[in-house]
User: Fold this.
Amino acid sequence: MFAYVLRRLLYALPILIGVNLVTFGLFFVVNSPDDMARMQLGVKRVTPEAIERWKAERGYDRPLFFNGAVHGSAQVMDTIFFQKSLKMFSFDFGRADDGRDIAQEIRDRMGPSLALALPTFVLGLVASVSLALILVFFRASYLDFWGVVLCVAMMSISSLFYIIGGQWLVSKLWALVPISGYAPGLDATRFLVLPVAISVIAGVGSSARWYRTIFLEEISRDYVRTARAKGLSERVVLFRHVLKNAMIPILTGVVVVIPLLFMGSLLVESFFGIPGLGSYTIDAINAQDFAVVRAMVFIGSVLYIVGLILTDISYTLVDPRVRLE
Assistant:
C-alpha cells in the first residue's frame, strides 16, 4: 500500500508544478505587473512613478524569472516567480494587496466553510443515496416515474432560485432564521440551517438521478439474480449487495469532493454573508486582488490532487484488484 500511495504522489507532483506554471503565466505574462498596478490604482491617467511605487510595495518590481542585477542564488530567488509562485509550495502565500496575511485569513475562514460544507456533504449524500435506492426499489412504478421527473425538475432549476426563494420564504416571510450573517460557536447553527438545507435541496436532484442509474446497472448483474434465487428479499439485495458493489462509482464522485469542502461554496457563502473561503475568493476577484486569487487557485489544485489520491486509495480498499493492476 505504501508503494502504491508513493507512486500516486510522484504522479501528482508534475501535475501540480504544471498547474503552478500555467497559473503564473496567466497572472504575470498575460497580465503584467504594470497592468495590475493600473487596475488597482483605478485611475485613467496614472503616472509611471505611481505604478513603480505600487509594484515596489508589493514586490512586483523584480524580474520574472532571472535577476541579472544580483549574484549567486539570488539571481533565481530574487524574482517574481520564486517569491510569488515557488514559495506557495511551502504554503507561504505572502500578503494580500490590502496588507493582510493570506495564510492567516485562510486559517480564520476555514472554520465557517467547513461548518457549512460538512453538514451539506453528509446530509446530501444520505438524501441522494436514500432517494435513489427508494426509486430503484419501486422501479417501473409511478413512484419511480414521478421521482425521476422531480429529480430532473430540481436539477434544471438554477441554484440562485433556491437561494433567493429560500431567503424570501423562510427568512423574510416566515422569519424563522436570519436572512444572512454568521456567528461563532453554537450560535452559528441558526445562520447555517437555511444555507445547508438549500445546498442539499439544490444538489439532491442530479445526485439521486446519477446514483439511480448506477444502482439500476448493478441490479441487472448475475450476482443479483443469484441472490434472489437464494430467496433473499429485495431489500436485502439492494442494501447488502447492490449498494456494496456500487461503491466504486460512488466513491469516484464522493471522495474527490471531500478535500474541496475546504474551499467553501462561492454562491452560498456570498449570498448568506458567511465569512468562509468561498466568499473570500469572490471578494478578492471583485477587488482584483490577484495575490489572494493565486493562493486560492493553488490551494484548489492541491486539494483536487489530494482528492484524486484519496479516490485511488479508496478504490484499493473496496476492490484490491485495482492495486494489483
